[in-house]
Amino acid sequence: MSVKEKLIKNSTFLFLRMLLVTLMSLIVVKLLVSKLGEIDYGIYTLIWGISLIFFFAGDSLSSSCQRFFSEAKASEDKKEINNLWNLYLRIFLILGIIIYVLIETVGIWVLNNQLNIPLSRIAGANRLLHYLAIAITLKTFSSLFLAILYSNEKFKFYATLSVLEAILKLVLIMNLDYFFDNKLASLGFIMMILQTLFLTFISVYCFFSLEDCRLTFKKTFSFKRHLLSYAIWNASASLSLILRNHGLNIILNILIGPVANAAYAISLQINTLLSGLINSVYNSLKPRIHKTYHSDKIYAEKLVLRSSKYLYFLLLIISLPIFIETEFIFSIWLETSPDFAIGFTRLVIINFLINVFFYPITGIIQANGEIKKYTILIGLLLLFNLPISWILLNLNYHPYTIFISSIFLSLVSFYPRFKILRNISDIRSRLYIKEVITPCLYGLFYSLITPFIINQLMEGGLYKLLINSSLSVGISVFMIYNFCLNQSEKRFLIEAISFKNSKK
């Protein structure tokens, strides 16, 4: 199988996975809001966010693993891969224990002393956090196995397992009332069960199906300095993003209350679903960028430019109907949405349409390995949103301002990203603007024409949603294909469709 065919196949598996997982997730959110209520749902998302803050080390280390596994796979050094695996396995075991202890100490203290939670919910919130401490620890172990799966490009198994997990989660949430008297505790228990099963299946598959995962109890490796340096700076980048997202949630909880947390959680849920769809495609490209950067730099740079356009157009086509018909979609999905949820969601989509450009750029910078400067600059910009939001909310500005400031900082971050990109590749800002940003802006303009006309002619409702969504998507695809893609990009898409049809 050629490289192009493999990319298409992997992207297809991951995209189909995300479509099914997205559907299940939307149903799960609706069930949770209905069963828990706005306040308890806000508390759950807040505590889950606090738990994820401690997960940052595992998530970032997993990204480091994937990068070095991919490099070793490209050089076909089986001994190095196995040494890396055994090294990282020991590190993750230690890391998991540390994360569990931190959640059970620092997390419990934050929950009981710093957050705005009604007294009647404190007991359930504490039980929830105890279960989530175990779930996050297991999730940390799972991230190592995901890294080795990604580097081996075993996306079919991962896609299948993720879909089964989503189905099981839906079934368990539907029966939430039958576990414990306290629904928050029941939800935490379900999350722990899901992570236990996921880790069990993925670890068994890796140990028995991948020769890279042979256990070596005798020390045959040494920890290299560049591995540590990369892991530290990558962890710093992950920490900045997590602190930004969940720090904003904590600020909303302290200054506004749990209802604002529910609205914030719903907007982030939409962001998570959209990013999941985008990641399903990007994750099939990322190992290829890492593998080819040192062997075929020109191809890697071409892949960055093309994937930036493809990811943006994909996100635009998917998110546009949601952005336009947010109010009506929420009325069907949630029946009654929390205050601020609609505005939060639209602003999150705008911010994501900016940040999606950075996915391939970050990928090639990670492949280069010189991420110290990148991490410091981008991390500081992300974290700068926290004090800005705190000041604005204390000055009684509208909660929307936290997202507006985030959008502004995302635009500002273009400059340092391109500055660093220029030092490690032949991609210049002028080239990127010409090849990527300009066609994407044209695509955005073309895509907005149809919804604008329909909004002037039709009142809100189901028919408007169906007509607006189908026409805007259809016309957007037509205009983007004919006016925003060059001939080589068109040929790639045609070959992708032909490949999938031949497989059928």
Textual characterization of the structure:
The chain has one domain (3-503). The protein is 85% helix and 0% strand. The protein has 18 helices and no strands. Helix 1 crosses helix 3 (122-151), helix 4 packs antiparallel against helix 5 (183-209) and helix 10 runs parallel beside helix 14. Mean pLDDT is 82; it is low at 499-504.
Number of separate domains: 1
**Rg to the nearest angstrom?**
23 Å
SSE order, one letter for each helix or strand: HHHHHHHHHHHHHHHHHH
Report the biggest beta sheet as strand number plus sense, adding barrel if it closes: none
What topology does this entry show?
Blueprint: H1 3-74, H2 78-113, H3 122-151, H4 155-174, H5 183-209, H6 225-255, H7 258-293, H8 297-324, H9 326-333, H10 341-355, H11 358-368, H12 372-383, H13 385-394, H14 401-412, H15 414-424, H16 429-457, H17 462-483, H18 487-503
